[in-house]
């Protein structure tokens, strides 16, 4: 019975006992050669009746079937992946998107250039208003950070799940490649035998070409197409994982810098209150520098959110196109 080559260790996987990559590849090539040669001998020894050839073509159609089903399942799961987690973080209307906007608002309202803890405030009213705003900002920051922490945790859980899918898909792709190499070798060996047979038995050559060689080439094409789709799916998984990680980093940056701004504003209030009691003036340069750093970090967050969604959609669209092309490949030809 025609079988896919036995499981070989992928090139980037650790090998037990210090087995070298060249040794593993040589063993795999020898196994492929043995199985391909044995199958071609069975083809050439098959009787003239159609029953024997039907058994052989059925074996061809099952070559790599398990891996095809496995990679297709991962691809479909990726296409059906709930993207609401990322959309909520990257989209403006999601809870996390609103929380990020709230962080920017907190920073803007604590800007000493507009909030008004002005030097020379004789009555101290502006300073009291600013102190009240700082106190309110602490509560707003806590609420926004809670929402962002929830989104961050969701992204980390999603990445952990995708890491497992990546591992499974990589192993299935390696097996698909091996099945594709077996189909390629079957094509080469059977073609050589049929070329040698053509002059003496042209009718048999045509029959074997139509009933066996054509199914081998068709199956090889299907395997290669599935491998291409699976490769696109693997790339999409890696891209989504990377963009999720980037979102986590930008969320961390936004919350860290905003927290620093709120703390700096609170310290500034304390210094200004102390200076007022002593009749001194306080420079706001340090606080303004903190504001500028926070605004820069939040601007980077907004830019990252936009890039994340566009990159994800582009990758998933490419995967969808490949999957649709594969579906068309497997459709029976229409009659003219």
Overall mean pLDDT stands at 77
Quantity of strands, as a count: 0
Instruction: Give the number of domains.
Output: 1
Taking all Cα atoms into account, the compactness measure Rg is 32 Å
- Give, in order, the helices and strands: HHHHHHHHH
Largest sheet: none
Gist of the model:
With 336 residues, the chain is mainly α.
Could you characterize the architecture of this molecule?
- With 336 residues, the protein is mainly alpha-helical.
- It starts with 20 loop residues before the first helix and ends in a 6-residue tail after the last helix.
- It has one domain.
- Helix 5 packs antiparallel against helix 9 (285-330).
- The protein has helices at 21-45, 50-61, 65-79, 84-90, 95-109, 112-115, 125-197, 202-278, 285-330.
Write the layout of secondary structure elements.
Layout: H1 21-45, H2 50-61, H3 65-79, H4 84-90, H5 95-109, H6 112-115, H7 125-197, H8 202-278, H9 285-330
Helix pairs in contact: 1-7, 2-8, 3-7, 3-8, 4-7, 4-9, 5-7, 5-8, 5-9, 7-8, 8-9
Task: Give the tags.
336 residues; single chain; 9 helices; rod-shaped
């Amino acid at each position: 019975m025609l079988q896919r080559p036995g499981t070989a260790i992928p090139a980037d996987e650790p090998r037990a006992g210090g087995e070298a990559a060249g040794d593993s590849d040589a063993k795999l090539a020898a196994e492929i050669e043995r199985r391909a040669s044995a199958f071609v001998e069975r083809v050439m020894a098959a009787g003239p009746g159609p029953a024997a050839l039907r058994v052989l073509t059925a074996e061809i159609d099952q070559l790599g079937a398990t891996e095809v089903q496995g990679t297709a399942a991962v691809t479909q799961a990726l296409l059906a992946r709930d993207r609401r987690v990322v959309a909520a973080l990257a989209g403006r209307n999601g809870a996390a998107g609103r929380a990020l906007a709230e962080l920017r608002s907190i920073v803007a309202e604590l800007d000493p250039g507009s909030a008004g803890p002005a030097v020379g405030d004789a009555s101290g009213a502006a300073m009291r208003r600013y102190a009240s705003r700082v106190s309110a900002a602490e509560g707003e920051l806590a609420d926004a950070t809670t929402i962002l922490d929830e989104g961050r945790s969701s992204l980390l859980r999603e990445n952990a799940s995708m890491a497992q899918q990546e591992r499974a898909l990589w192993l299935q792709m390696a097996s698909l490649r091996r099945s594709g190499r077996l189909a390629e070798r079957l094509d080469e060996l059977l073609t050589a035998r049929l070329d040698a047979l053509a002059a003496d038995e042209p009718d048999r050559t045509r029959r074997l070409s139509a009933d066996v060689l054509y199914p081998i080439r068709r199956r090889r094409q299907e395997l290669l197409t599935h491998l291409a789709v699976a490769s696109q799916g693997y790339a999409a998984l890696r891209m989504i994982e990377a963009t999720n990680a980037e979102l986590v980093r930008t969320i961390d940056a936004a919350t860290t810098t905003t927290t620093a701004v709120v703390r700096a504003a609170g310290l500034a209030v304390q210094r200004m209150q102390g200076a007022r009691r002593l009749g001194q003036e306080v420079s706001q340069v340090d606080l303004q520098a903190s504001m500028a750093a926070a605004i820069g970090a939040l601007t980077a967050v907004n830019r990252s959110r936009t890039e994340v969604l566009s990159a994800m959609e582009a990758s998933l669209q490419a995967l969808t196109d490949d999957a649709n092309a594969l579906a068309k490949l497997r459709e029976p030809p229409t009659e003219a």
